[in-house]
Amino acid sequence: MDLWNIKDLEPPPVTSCKACTKQIDVRLLHAVLQEGVNFFSNQHHLFTEAALLSRSVYRFKVKFRSSKDFKIVEKLNHILRTYQRMHISAALNVLLVTIPQNYKANNTYMLTKNMFDYVLVRLQGVGKLLCATLEACKEVSTAMQQRLRLGHFWKVAIVIFATAARVFVVAKNALKYCCELYGNLLPYSSSLGNSGVQWLPEGYSFPAHLDEWLEIDWLDLDNVIDILDDESILFYVKLTDSDDFYS
Known about the structure:
By secondary structure, the protein is mainly α.
C-alpha cells in the first residue's frame, strides 16, 4: 500500500536536531505553516455540509437501502468522514510550535526532516481524498438529477443535490490550497536534517508538483456553464405539495 494511503500512519517521534545550513527562512516557514493551520482549522463550511449529508444518510438509509443512487451518497459521506479524521491542521501545528524564533546555522535546534516529510505525505493523502470527494460529488449530482426526472422523492433529491454542489465548491477550493501549501513546504524538506533513523522508506521521493501528481490540470480552470436559449433542454420541477419527503 502506498504511504499516503495508510489510514493510521504512524508519525515519527517529535524531536529536534542542530541546524547545519543557512538556507532556511524561518519567518517565511512560520508564516506558511501558520496560514495552513488557520485554513484547515476553519473549515466549518465543509464540515457543516458534511454534517447535513451525514444526517440525510442516517435518516433515509433504511428507506433507500436498495437504491443504487443512495449507495453513491453513502460513498461521499464516507469520504468526508475520512477527511475529517485526518486532522491535518494538528500535524501542521506540531511543526509550527517547534520552529525557533531566532535561527542561526550550527547554533539552533530545528525540527527534523522526518517530521516535515510526515506532513508532506499527509498532504498527499489530503489531496487524494479531496479528489475523491470531487468525483463523488459529480456522481451524486448525476444520480440525483435522474431521480428528479423521475419525480420520485424529489424533495430528498433536491436537498442532497444542493448539499453535494456546496461540498464540491468548498472541496475544490481546499484542494487548490492544499496543492499551493505542498509546493510552499516541499523545498524546506531538503534543507532539514535528521537525528535518528530515516522515517521515509528507501527510494521514496516526493512529486515536484502535487497537482500534476494528482492529475488535476483542470484545477485552475473556472467552471463556466453555457446556458442555451432553448426551452426544450431546460428541466423544470413543479413545486407542488407532496408528502413523499416525510413518508
